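I hope you will forgive my troubling you with a question about protein structure. The matter concerns a single protein, recorded as an amino acid sequence and a row of backbone structure tokens. Please examine both parts with care and let me know of anything in them that strikes you as inconsistent. Here, with my thanks, is the record as I have it:
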Amino acid sequence: EFFLSALLPCRFQARSQRCWEQLASLFSSLQVLAAEVVGTPQPSTAACEALSAGLGKVVDCLQELRTQVTSADDAHAEQSEVAWHELQWATFEDLDEDSKLRHDPRGRRLMQLGAGRSRRQDVKTNKPRSFVMRTSVVGITQLLYELCEGFREDTFQERYQELRQSAKQGSNSHAQMVVLTFEVQKKVLPKYGFAASPQGVMEMRHESGWHADLHGDNMCCMGDAIVAKLRRDIHVCLDMDVQKGERVPVFHTVGDSHSCFGWPKWVIQHWQGPLLGFNVHRVDLRKLSPPIREGDSVCLCFGEIDCRCHVYKQCHKEVQDNGEPRPYQDVIDEIVDRYFAHLRSQTQPGLLPPGVKIFIFNVPPPARGCDVAEVPEFPYVGGDEERQAYALYFNKRLKEECAACGFIFFDVYDQYADAEGFLSTKYSDGNVHIGDGIWLQEFIDRVGLKPFRWSHINMRGHSA
């Protein structure tokens, strides 16, 4: 998470680009593999060796990167040094944060910048996650100043005020105001390491809030007075009612790896690890980060791992009196009943913010065993036709329970299936996931999410 979200947008030299890209690729693949090894009582030797080899490549890549940093020319020296020492600081996972920062000379500097604390909460431990901030007090001051200057320009203000006169939450004028504001933000954010995207805007706001408020409540201005003033100036430029807290609702996905593959980039993804639908009770929707807020939509993505790995084992684990395996329908019924019992408890009145919509993602079509190379982190248990039958029945039960609970069944099974009902290689990632999100986007449009959402704003070509 640190490499992908914090340092990659801050590439400080063209010649270091290969190192950053290699690190991103390594961490993306190791994340799933490490979760599989840690979560398995007796992981396979092949999986452990693959993890060890991958970590060895990370070490080699970091050493090469350090050479690049230490040989940087004067124009990049200061930025290179800060990036490298922030990277070093972020690797001290097991030490007490305060003592770690005090004993590292550059850590004391980071401590002054507030980098030793995070508002983000870990889902399992409910403790703050460590992270390295992109900006110092000086950096965020310059960023906010540039934004403020952009919002004060006559051409921006004339168009903004014209739209504001007829704007209401969800109207076309409101959507145009969001686009107009983003046109200014996308020019400034990449200079300071934030992606020119809705996620980048959100992260910039969180970080500026940290500098302005420190550990106090939102908008309390207990931090740096200049940052707090610039933030207020921006609110004045945009005629924002801070107390009202006007915002654009967003779409969240929560679940196993299928909550991260194929979805549009504007979706807020909450990967819970390789979690079974049978164990969905471990997920608390009230503790997600960023949190679910009023009017948001939440799509839960569970069940594919159950169908691919566990239903077959449970059927043959419990042989009936007549010597036959337990019917797969009974096993799936038990999983779905547990799944929705937990969701009903999570969606009781008053537990989630008002207006939250709950979506339940279908189990995607199973991949044929012959279409993909089986790897330890994605095992297949049962024949192709058996796993297909599991997925179809699982989705049948999901659809029934959604109708009973008032949830929306996110059904794109047929669109991603080939003529025989298996995952189409045309739309897959080459393994068990959806790779092309065209039908996910189409479904979201079809269910009527309003056009002022980030999902309907053209961000193509705006990434950092």
Summary: The CA atoms of residues 414 and 421 lie 8 Å apart.
